[in-house]
Every structure is written in structure tokens, then in C-alpha cells.
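Dear Dr. L.,

I hope this message finds you well. Following up on our conversation about the binding site, I have prepared a predicted three-dimensional model of the protein together with zinc ion. For your records, I am including the exact sequence and ligand specification that went into the calculation, followed by the C-alpha cells. Please feel free to forward this to your student if that is useful.
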Amino acid sequence: MKIKLWGIRGSLPTPLTPLQVYNRVFDLLDKYDKARETSKLTPADFLKSLPEHETFGYGGHTSCVEVFDANTRLIIDGGSGIRLLGNEIMMESTSLGRAQIHILMTHFHWDHLIGLPFFTPIFLPGNEIHFYGVQDNLEENIRRVFTKPNFPMAFEQLPSKIIFHKLAPRTPVKFGKFSVTPYKLDHPDPCWGYRFEHSNKVFSHCVDSECTRVSREQMGPDLPLYQNVDLMTFDAQYSFMEASERINWGHSSGPTGIDIAMREKVKQVLFIHHDPASSDAKISRAEQQTRIYYESVLESASNQGLAHGLRWCFAHEGMVLQP
Ligand SMILES: [Zn+2]
Ligand SMILES: [Zn+2]
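The resulting structure of the complex is given below.
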């Protein structure tokens, strides 16, 4: 199984402004100028030597994650990131007009829906688009996206075949070699995470969540979402300070994810759902604060013989990983 992050921003698509692009180019040229005083770096080598957030940035598209193997493609949510994924699907000549596309919905906040009207495969006759969700109003919520005057084509006019599947909470469903189980997160309206199992590897998608239930007892029947996990995506919309001030806003921070990952021995964590109000520099600062927190926790865990070599980062759009 592989995971590709097509949208990592929370709440609202967040493109760089022209001034931000200008400032980034200016800073890079200035740094390159200074670096050339002491070495003969090529521009490409210079860019490679920098942290990715200073060159690529974290990305601006909202929630969309692809989970796939050679035969099966599963998509989590239809945020603005799904538009580019749709373009990639359209480039695969084998699936033109014959694609079977499976979209697992976590919930129906705008940042998880907003890309669906721009997901080109939905407009191709012959394609089958399957939507899955735990919520009773799954169909109603997807239909509403394609409603005049918010979108010029009504749901009934969509050329592809659209099929809705209601999932039972905490009950696995099979897709090829994947077994996928929904677990409840701590988020308004509400939101469901997904645990993917494939060839003895586990990926858990834990976004959007405030993680108001922290202890194993509080997590209760939803604890398996975090157990025996190789790779986890986790909601780090806020810095730790912001999260402590924004109670009931539905989002979490890096240190909370570190605590859960350390306790449950998750092998790797990708922090996503970055706040639209956060610049790349601010997200990087939140990552540094999380690093300081992690190192303090790691020291006491090591002293007790409980450290397990956790890997983690604040993830950027376009990352592809194998759990
Ligand atoms: Zn969201
Ligand atoms: Zn949400």
C-alpha cells in the first residue's frame, strides 16, 4: 500500500499571494548570493540543501489523501486536492470511461467537499463513482454540492454513475486487498477516521480531530484506530498554544499527536490539516515546537526503556509514502 497526500490544508484552500511568491524568490536569491561567497553550489544543489518548507512550502490544497496499491485506488475526502488527482486519473488511458472510483468521506465540512465539482472523472460517462460514509445523510450531503445556483450542473445531470454506500461504525469493509474500518474522531458534525490494513501493514487517517478523548479508557471503542499502526496522518491545524485556546474548534496540535503515537507505539506520523492562517514559516515554527516537545518526551521514555524510534514530520502536499 502507498499513500499520496493531494491536499494537506485545513478549512480553506490557501494559495501563496503574489507578494509571498516575490518574498520567497527574493529570500532565495539573497541566500544563494551569500552561499556563493564561500562555495560554488549550482542553483539546483543550493535548493536541495535547503529545508523543503523554504522552497516548496507545505501546500495550499484542502483535504484529499489517496491510498492505493497496483489494483485498487481509495480516496479519502474531496477537498480541493482531488482536482489534480482527477486529472491524473484522466491521464490513465486504461481507465477512461471505465474507472471505478471509491471515495471515503470523513465528514462534510467545506474543506472536504469543495473539490468534488472539479473532479473531472465524475463528468465522464461510463465511470462509476462510489461514495462511502458512516453518516446517515451521506447521499443528501453529496447531492447538495451539485445544486443550482451553487454549481451549474445539477446532481441528476452528472454523466457518471454515482453509488452511495453507508458504512457501519467500527465494521471493516473490503476493497481488493484492503480492509478499511471507520472509527469516530472528536470533531463537530461529526467526523470519522479510517484504519486501512493491507499485507500486514496499517495506515490510519485521524483527521479532523481535536482528540478531546486522550486516555485509552476515554477512546473506548475507537482506540483501535491508533493501535498497531505503521503510518498515521494526524490533525495538527494549530500550535499547542492555539489548540489550548480553541476548545471545541475540532482540531489538534503536534504535541497531542506525539503523546498518542508514543503511547500506542505508532511507527510514523504525518501531521497535516495545516491552518489557512499559517504561513509556511509559521507551520515550520509549530514543527520546531513539536520537536522540542518530542525530545523532552523522548528523554523520559528512553529513561524508562519505552522509546520506540518514532518518525514524524509536518507533511507537505505531494508526499508519497509506503507504511
Ligand atoms: Zn477539515
Ligand atoms: Zn471539519
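In brief: The pocket of zinc ion (ligand 1) is lined by residues 10, 63, 109, 111-112, 208, 273 (CB under 6 Å).

With kind regards,
A. P.
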